[in-house]
Amino acid sequence: MKQPIPNFTHLFSISAFILLFLSANAQDKPSFIGLRTGVSIPFGKYAAKDLDEGSFAQAGFNISIDGAWFFKPKFGVGGGVGLNLLPVDVASLGRARVDKDPFLSSVVIRSEPWKIIIAMIGPYFQFPISSKFSFSAKLLGGLLYGKTPYQLYKPDYYLLPDDWADITPASDMKFSWQTGLGLVYKLNYCIALTWDADICYDKLTFGFNSSSGYYTDERTIAIINTMLGLRINL
């Protein structure tokens, strides 16, 4: 049995109708998918130079993918996944360890960065300011994953050999929250540029094995992400 020959006129008409519908929908309801990157800025105890509660985190790099479906012109639901890499202030960490240990004259530290992954969903809001600019906001909940840095230590103790020692990384994950504000600049009906500032604040508990046994260490994760992005309206 022969297959029916497609009617290309009908196919073209249907495709044109779908494109016109999506274009009109993008103008009225700003659904989107976007890519963002920028600076991760630690604050509070996460950036503190304190061995008991601080994490010696420094400003680092972030990249994220996000998107939202707007069922109303100003309200929608969406989510995103982001990776944050924050280096460790090894100079301050070394000084803090020397100050705390009276038998330690100096220490050399090599450290990987902190790794923080955020994957969350929730409501999105967007309010037009002018024909080109819009104000955006969101309040998300989901998973916060953190991994401590792998570190190598070479301590210099009085009258003792100087051998390298390492601290292997530990990780933790929990339900957390994230909120953010931003500006959207519409280049055309399909493409927009964005600037966002997101904040994430919570505590994670990391488990370690040492010569004296297993122990846990609770650390505050406090990050402000400032990002530039490219958004494709759907």
Fold and architecture overview:
The protein is 14% helix and 59% strand. The protein has 2 helices and 11 strands. The chain has helices spanning 8-28, 90-100; strands spanning 32-42, 60-70, 75-86, 104-111, 114-128, 133-147, 151-157, 165-167, 171-186, 191-210, 213-233. With 234 residues, the chain is mainly β. The protein has a single domain (30-233), classed as Porin, CATH 2.40.160.
Brief account:
The protein is mostly beta strands.
List keywords for this structure.
elongated; Porin; 59% strand; three-stranded antiparallel beta sheet; 11 strands; mainly beta; 234 residues; disordered N terminus
Inertia-based shape: elongated
Largest sheet: 8 strands, antiparallel, barrel
What's the architecture, going by CATH?
Beta Barrel
Strand content: over 45%
Helices, by number, come to: 2
Structural class: mainly beta
Task: Name the strands of the widest sheet in spatial order.
Answer: 1-2-3-5-6-9-10-11
The helix fraction, in percent, is 10-25%
Give the rounded overall mean pLDDT. 88
Describe the secondary-structure layout:
Layout: H1 8-28, E1 32-42, E2 60-70, E3 75-86, H2 90-100, E4 104-111, E5 114-128, E6 133-147, E7 151-157, E8 165-167, E9 171-186, E10 191-210, E11 213-233
Antiparallel strand pairs: 1-2, 1-11, 2-3, 3-5, 4-7, 5-6, 6-9, 7-8, 9-10, 10-11
